[in-house]
Write a structure and sequence with these properties.
Shape: globular
Number of helices: 6
CATH class: Alpha Beta
Distance between the termini: 25 Å
Strand content: 15-25%
Structural class: alpha/beta
Order of helices and strands: HEEHEHEHHEHEEE
Mean pLDDT: 85
Radius of gyration: 17 Å
Amino acid sequence: MSCKDFTFDHYRKTLYMFQAAGYELVPFRYYKKDMRKVLILRHDIEFNPLRALEIAKIEKEVGVSSTFFLRLHANEYNAFGFNTTNIVDQIIELGHEIGLHSEGLFFMDVMGIKRDYREYVQTLREDKKMMDEFFNINVVSVAPHGDNRAKKDSLLGDFEMDFMRYDQHGIFEKHVYSTEFFGGSEFIYLSDSNGIWQEGCICEHLNNHNKIQMLTHPYLWYEKHYYLGRTYPQ
């Protein structure tokens, strides 16, 4: 398997490899601290919900579940539109978790609103309520959108990171960048951001770490993937 391979088949084989090596493959919702070897499966739905459904089907085939983080304020898709709703419903029926891909900071910056905890928290509460009621679920996991994180070194200052983590308190149970899952924890963080595994493809980390948070972006993955540049068709 090529470590620049972004095909569905490579993803499927990688999941089977980790299963065979004794890892528990779980979404954030089902993670427990006493898990000895665990791979948390995280997917940020940036542009193309349909690709997310393909990933969800593959994971169902393998017998595992994951967390798909949905944007509510995206220009690229309508989270509550008919097509996206149909896809999200199918992902839920396949046994996966839906989390909030929060855009509070983005929203305030675009609108020219001064960054304020109260405004941020209110936006998060409203977003969670909309998701809970519309999809008839209880959203417990959150992942900030647009933090420009492509590797372990933060591109944001401590204040901004603390700001993003604030949305966990009193609203969500799991925050992907809390110290439990990122930075200073026992987890290693691996991401395919921009079509590049900064620390090597996930398949190269088999048995090198006991606890891994793996972030993938479904729009990067294809049945047949011949172009590995930075711009991808939607």
